[in-house]
TrEMBL record, chain A:
SMART domains given in the database record: AAA
Pfam families xref list: ABC_tran
InterPro entries: AAA+_ATPase, ABC_transporter-like_ATP-bd, ABC_transporter-like_CS, P-loop_NTPase
Source organism, top-level taxon: Bacteria
Identification of the protein by name: Phospholipid/cholesterol/gamma-HCH transport system ATP-binding protein
GO molecular function, one term: ATP binding
Domain ABC transporter: 6-243
Keyword terms, alphabetized: ATP-binding, Nucleotide-binding, Transport
TrEMBL record, chain B:
InterPro entries: ABC_MlaE_roteobac, Permease_MalE
PANTHER family, alphabetized: ABC TRANSPORTER PERMEASE PROTEIN-RELATED (PTHR30188), PROTEIN TRIGALACTOSYLDIACYLGLYCEROL 1, CHLOROPLASTIC (PTHR30188:SF4)
Keywords assigned: Cell inner membrane, Cell membrane, Membrane, Transmembrane, Transmembrane helix, Transport
NCBIfam families documented for this protein: MlaE family lipid ABC transporter permease subunit
TM stretches of this protein: 6-28, 61-83, 95-117, 156-182, 209-229, 241-265
Annotated compartments: Cell inner membrane; Membrane
Name of this protein: Phospholipid/cholesterol/gamma-HCH transport system permease protein
Domain of life of the organism encoding this protein: Bacteria
Task of the protein: Could be part of an ABC transporter complex.
Bilayer topology annotation: Multi-pass membrane protein
Homology family: Belongs to the MlaE permease family.
Entry keyword Cell membrane: yes
């Protein structure tokens, strides 16, 4: 069996009296696209932030390419982060910088650098997400929500990460724009050969972009299986969630 | 978790005071950690000279009109008050001396500090607070850029550098304001007014003004950045951060001004 790209074991996190994660076990193989579904507040974002090292779990182990990353700091953590790209839910573009400096931020870290070369790299990455060079000098606030999302995607892929995280990639977009983003994610995962972890509560999106789906409920993974089984999982939690019923084991 | 046993009425005030002290110490500790991280991050590359100069412009250059207007009106009002009060003891000749000492030692630094705090602490808290709630700070981290190094350090150092320069300008304009009123309205002789001004102000006064300005600059940026960095969720969180930044910067400026004055003259 191939070694897992990312492996979470027993990840727990408590905020005050709230046990947000309660022993999450999750493994992602190289080149696999996994979607984690679950309600708002089920701990999806916290899981992602634990892997990115933005939040330190109270207990458990996170391995990336076999290397334990819980407890890493400073340079060691930065070296692992170099493998990650992240698409934030609200895009999180830097609104004080023009588009081209946003897209190349992972390469420049905000420092002055060869502007001509950076603009070329920005253009190339924008092209990958279906945007053209006309927006290079615009500020993020001058773009529509869908375009911001695509610029954020270009920023995430610019350093050619091995792993990309997508936090609710289709939230806040109309169904057509959402599908454009889904198609982009699928083609990026295929073309660039990256490992992808998406958290979403958009079933159409999960079915389209993921090879495998896992469901998070009350801080635990309650089901995991191939995307084709999503609608006949036999799991009451998954059934209630994918059919969007108010009645069921999830209250 | 705190026990829910009822506190006997007689010790309730002590419990409240104790809680407040513990809370205050915790805040002081967090601010000290924040400062330590910022300074440590600034000691090693990469450096951001571009960001530093950008902040010098924001904090210093663009605040000059506000600071200049504040200084000229204050200097003139001060001259008028000293003249009116002094005329009762036929002591109107003290006008230039009191204006220059009052401006340089106290009003120049404090008024510049307060004006810039109102302008800059609030803007920093709002900008960094918005970056916090829109996940831009998390994005910086995932793009392997230290936000202390990239955002906080340039603001802190720029403010510490900019404030002394602005206080020098404010002092000059304030003295000019007093002179203008004295000569134009109170019929002072220009040359003797300036001679008295020169005799009563010393290099040490200016040194103290510059030290005060540097300290105020530090608090202005520190409070703006700290509150923005720790902003809670949503628009309300950013609003709270902005208000807390300005209020705490004001209090720290006035308290540290008193302490420095008391140390030098006490």
């Amino acid at each position: 069996m191939a070694e897992n790209k990312i492996a979470l074991e027993g990840i727990s996190k408590r905020f005050g009296a709230m046990q947000v994660l309660d022993g999450v076990n999750l493994a992602i193989e190289p080149g696999e696209s996994l979607a984690v579904i679950g309600q708002s507040g089920s701990g999806k974002s916290v899981t992602l932030k634990c892997i990115l090292g933005l939040i330190r779990p109270d207990a458990g182990s996170i391995r990336v390419d076999g290397e334990e990353i819980v407890g890493l700091r400073g340079r060691a953590l930065d070296r692992v982060r170099a493998k990650f790209g992240m698409l934030f839910q609200g895009s999180a573009l830097f609104d004080s910088l023009p588009v081209w400096r946003n897209v190349t931020f992972a390469l420049t870290h905000g420092q002055q650098s060869d502007a001509k070369e950076m603009r070329r790299i920005a253009e190339e990455n924008l092209e990958r997400v279906g945007l053209d060079a006309r927006i290079l000098n615009l500020r993020p606030s001058e773009l529509s929500g869908g375009m911001q999302k695509r610029v954020a995607l270009a920023r995430a892929i610019a350093p050619r990460p091995e792993i990309i995280f997508f936090d609710e990639p289709t939230t806040g977009l109309d169904p057509i724009r959402a599908d454009v983003i889904n198609d982009l994610i699928v083609s990026l995962v295929d073309d660039l050969g990256v490992t992808a972890l998406t958290i979403t509560h958009d079933m159409a999106s999960a079915r389209k972009i993921a090879h495998r789906v896992a469901m998070l409920y009350r801080g635990r993974i309650v089901w995991s299986g191939p995307r084709d089984r999503l609608y006949d999982s036999g799991n009451p939690y998954v059934d209630q969630f994918v059919q969007g019923r108010a009645e069921g084991p999830i209250q | 978790m705190p026990s829910s046993e009822p506190v006997p009425l007689i010790i309730a005030p002590f419990v409240a005071i104790g809680r407040a002290v513990v809370h205050l110490l915790a805040v002081v500790g967090r601010v000290a950690m924040f400062t330590f991280r910022t300074v440590r991050s600034a000691l090693t590359p990469p450096y951001y000279p571009g960001r530093f100069f950008e902040q010098m412009m924001h904090i210093g250059w663009f605040s000059l009109p506000v600071v200049g207007l504040t200084a000229v009106f204050t200097g003139a009002a001060l001259a008028q008050q000293i003249f009116t009060a002094g005329s009762r003891f036929s002591a109107t000749s003290t006008v230039p001396a009191v204006v220059v000492i009052g401006m340089v030692r106290e009003l120049g630094p404090v008024l510049v500090g307060l004006m810039v705090a109102g302008r800059v602490s609030s803007a920093m808290a709002a900008e960094i607070g918005t970056m916090r709630v829109t996940e831009q700070l998390d994005a910086l981290t995932t793009l392997r850029t230290d936000s202390y190094r990239y955002l906080i350090a340039p603001r802190l150092f720029a403010a510490v550098m900019a404030l002394p320069l602005m206080v020098l300008v404010a002092n000059a304009i304030g003295i000019f304001g007093g002179w203008l009123l004295a000569v134009e309205k109170l019929r002072f002789n220009s040359a003797s007014y300036l001679a008295v001004t020169r005799r009563f102000v010393s290099v040490d006064d200016f040194k103290m003004a510059l030290v005060k300005a540097g300290v105020f600059g530090f608090f202005i940026a520190l409070m703006g950045c700290y509150h923005g960095f720790n902003a809670g969720g949503g628009a309300a969180g950013v609003g709270n951060a902005t208000r807390n930044a300005v209020v705490s910067a004001f209090i720290l400026i006035l308290a540290s001004n008193f302490l420095i004055t008391a140390m030098v003259f006490g």
